[in-house]
Amino acid sequence: MDIKTLILNSIRKRGHVKTSDIVKKTKYSRAYVHRHLKNLVEDRIITLVGKSNQAHYILASKKRLISSKPLIIHRIMTNHGLAEDKILQKVKEQSAIFQNIAENISSITDYAFTEMLNNAIEHSASEKIDIVIMKTADDVHFTITDWGVGILNNIMNKKRLNSEMEAIQDLLKGKETTLPEAHSGEGIFFTSKIADSLKIKSFSKKIVFDNVMQDIYVKDVRSVKGTRVDFSLRLNSQKTLSDLFSKYTDESFEFTKTGVKVKLYHYNVDYVSRSQARRILAGLEKFKTIELDFKDVNTVGQAFADEIFRIWQGKHPNAKFIIKDANENIMLMINRAQT
Asked: Cα 242 to chain center, whole Å?
């Protein structure tokens, strides 16, 4: 009988075994026996319980295996030949993060993590990528950090934009990508809609999507190289990917809808100008349905309304605007432009 079989038979017979029990039976050295016990532990066949004189080995049940796995994974990886799906699979194998969570939470986290990690792999040109993914009592969240070109700088350079704010405006529309032959530009858009919180920090700007408070805002931060993405989702969330995709796609599952927060284009003036309206409209010809959210905007200028609702709408008659949270002053300007 080999030593492995002897160990397992002893545990099955008595419920547990100590190193000294096997040493006594086999006359092998303690170090030799311990090496075989360690191999069985690493193979997750048995598990160690207790310490010092009380230490003994028992068969590893599925419940014990799950409880012995960590609830946090931290990896710093060289950005060469990485595949986001394989990295996620390793996270699942090596941790209990995805154990005993609802299917909708698992699906959303799968989607968001792979989309954000793919962005870092494909776009950042960073030599290293740092990932942290964990589960707490309340939520699951992850952070992906790179030290590359930075998402906003990348958009600025590829699209010849003049500022980080213009890059942010481009990014928020959803159907934007600096690598159109390989990407649809939808990953950040959909992730920002499904997360409870999504924060994107790049150089001197941080974009915060707070879906609990239903707000989006941009902050100035201390400049750092690269991009950091922070995602969180409550474990009791009722959101589903299917609901999200059906909201922003048409019957053919084409990504045809978007939303714009007008507040982000309002530069501390009492109205929004024609030039600002043009910045909002840039790229929206890709969409069939466009939601304009006027929350926290007090008024708009006649030129702004005319640019969107007469000139641009006249050039794109198949596009439909949905107006949200517009007060009577704003609606007056919109109605005048449409008549």
From this structure: 17
Residue 175: phi and psi, rounded to 5, are: -100, 45
Coil, strand or helix at 129? strand
Average pLDDT over residues 305-331: 91
What is the DSSP annotation of 149-171? S-HHHHHHHHHT-SSHHHHHHHH
Out of 136-140, 163-167, 199-203, pick the least confident.
163-167
Find where tokens 């939303």 sit. 259
For residues 108, 113, 114, 116, the Cα torsion angle rounded to the nearest 10 degrees is: 120
Give the global pTM.
0.67
Query: Does residue 206 surpass a pLDDT of 90?
Result: yes
Asked whether the predicted pLDDT for residue 69 surpasses 50, the reply is yes
Phi (first) and psi of residue 206, to 5 degrees? -125, 125
Q: Where do the domains of the chain lie, and which CATH numbers do they carry?
A: 3-67 (1.10.10.10), 69-250 (3.30.565.10), 256-339 (3.30.750)
Q: From CA 93, how far away is CA 319, in angstroms rounded?
A: 46
Q: What is the DSSP letter of 196?
A: S
Q: Considering Cα of 77, then 80, then 81, then 84, what sign does the dihedral take?
A: positive
Separation of alpha carbons 40 and 279, rounded Å: 63
Task: List the beta strands (DSSP E) in 28-159.
Answer: 46-49, 56-59, 72-78, 128-135, 139-146
Higher per-residue pLDDT: 273 or 40: 40
- What does the alpha-carbon distance between residue 146 and residue 21 come to, in Å, rounded to a whole number? 51
Nearest to 140 by CA among 95, 96, 109, 179: 109
Tell me which residue has tokens 């600025």.
156
From 126-135, 179-188, 222-231, the region with the lowest mean pLDDT:
179-188
